[in-house]
Automatic annotation (TrEMBL):
Residues 1-42 form the signal peptide. Residues 108-479 form the Solute-binding protein family domain. It is found in: Cell envelope. This is ABC transporter substrate-binding protein. Residues 1-14 have a biased composition (Low complexity). Residues 1-21 are annotated as: Disordered.
Amino acid sequence: MSAAHTPGGTPPRRSTGRWRRSRAAVVLTALTAFAVACSSSANNPGTAAGGDSTTMTIVTPDTGITWTLDDGFGGFEQGKNVQATLLRKPFVDSPQGRGVQQQDVYNYGPYLASSYDVSPDGLTYTFHLSDAISVAGNELTADDVLWSYERKFGTPGSLAAGIMAPSLTDPAQQLKKIDDKTVSFTIPNAGLGTTFLALLSDLCGQIYDSTELKKHVTPDDPYAVKWSAQNPNYGFGPYKVTDYKPGQSVTMTARDDFVLGAPKVKTINIRIVADPGTRANAVKNGDADLAENVTPADSAALSTDPTLIAPQVSNPNTYIMMPLVTNKAPFDNTLVRQAMAYATPYQQIIDNVYRGLAQRKGPGFLLDDAPGYSNAGFPDYTYDPGKAKALLAQAGFPNGVEFTLAVSAAEPDVREAAIQIQTQAKAAGFTITIDEMPASEFAQQRTNHTSQAFILRDYAITLTPPYELLVYTAPNGANNFADWYDKPFQDALATGNTLPDALSPEAGRAWNAAERIYLDQSPIVFIGQVQPNVLVSSKVTGYAWTSDNWIDYFNFGKTDS
């Protein structure tokens, strides 16, 4: 998951409380382990997947549950379902059918805010709050909104401040309480509007119950962050946590007083199961309803089973990518980076590793369905070892180059892709050593730029073109994986950011110009878009891909057969 300083946007006008497009009037380790985990919840009669239509069991690896952005970086899925945001992105049907859905990522509608207004100059957004009630029974107020952002920006280590800049950098100055049920945000310029609305719909837009949290404030913990890391029931979301055993299980219970209505699935049982094959078999055997982080091989092998669904969406935002770190040889040379782009066997990786559960629409990384945007005119990077060898010779390496490619041991599909690259790039003159390392070490090297190159799956949560363009390029940013800076690129991006409508054809041309520079320089080789790595029982309806790739449990339904 990636975040960065995110300029760009549209100045929407008065909301009518309906879902509308943002550029117009916008509104609002083993089977035994699995068996043990299930038996530990024997007092929950719906733990087994085959129980009834009101209970679901999800098997997942241990992602290190993080209940909010304020207390670290980890698995946010469960936190997402006990929290809620001012706005939300609606779901539409996926072309796949079979009950699979996907978010409309350029549309922002009501959630904790029932509506909002925009000032004529496009700078001030005034939100009218709903009558939402928290898990603790407190009604949502403007004070909750202001205190939530005070906490997000005042807590050391919080990710929200970095994600929301430059739309929001100083909540004390930019947020204003109008009355108990009305609050306003003022942004620096109107062009930030679309990205600002998208961010309010994503994880950093969660609003907390300040009345409940203030009960647990201490001099050493002025925002109750330490307390809330272990006590998650301080949100306005659709579920509350009724049992939590870190590293083992979570049980979540539906809230009948949720602002959007009672969830259809009343109990969600999350079980930690380390082995991906075991997770896939749990759904196949009917012991679970949904498995997360399933390997592409298992998804492909089981996708023909009529009792299972391997979800596919039209434009997944998870990319398998290979950053080429530019602060050291050999990738301080643009020609060598271009050669690597031609030495990468894109289609072979999609076919052999992802079994077709990935796609390559082009060499770029902006989602191509953004209004006003076109990905025409980009370099045609395909596997062409002859062209790669010629570029290496032009760069002064007629005998080829050697480098080490880092990969995380936690991503077996990515390791398979690295092996494909290692094998096929030999014909282009690249000798590659694969350095497989623990996930923690891999995470560290990806931000401190110590590797020559590395390969991973990653995605931008907020999918406006200016956000996506900056997410991997922000100077000195943690997600500038390739440690790359180019003034013409930054100037082209700045040109787009001066425009009032980030989704207009004029802005689309600016984003195309900036992306073209990026691709010509090739600091990251974008291999392909990867489909969701989940496996779902056909009894489940309402699985939906979301831009943050965490599942929205409220959308679930389940049949008895």
